[in-house]
Amino acid sequence: MAKKSWSDMSNTQRTVVVVTGVAEIALTTWCLRDLKARPSELVRGPKVLWGPAMSVQPVGPIAYLVWGRKR
Asked: Which residues contact 67 (CB under 8 A, 6 or more apart)?
């Protein structure tokens, strides 16, 4: 399957790409703000490692939400 360029995509495909990108940015921003505001005692593992882990899209932010925060 050949890689499509932006101009080769249909309007629906372009919309999906844009919406997915916005969702990833919003999720990552929310997680980073939560990490910054959350006390270290309420984070599993070192906070300094969770920041770079969130750059792995979309696994990092989801992992932080599922396993990184203590309730």
From this structure: 44
Sequence-ordered alpha helix ranges (H) in the chain = 11-37, 47-53, 59-63
Distance spanning both ends of the chain, measured CA to CA: 44
- Tokens 């920041």 map to which residue? 51
Measured in degrees and rounded to the nearest 5, phi and psi for residue 69 equal: -100, 135
Predicted TM-score (pTM) of the model is 0.85
Best CA proximity match to 48, nearest among 40, 57, 58: 40
Q: What is the pLDDT along the chain (71 residues), one digit of tens a residue?
A: 788 899 999 999 999 999 999 999 999 999 999 999 999 999 999 999 999 999 999 999 999 999 999 98
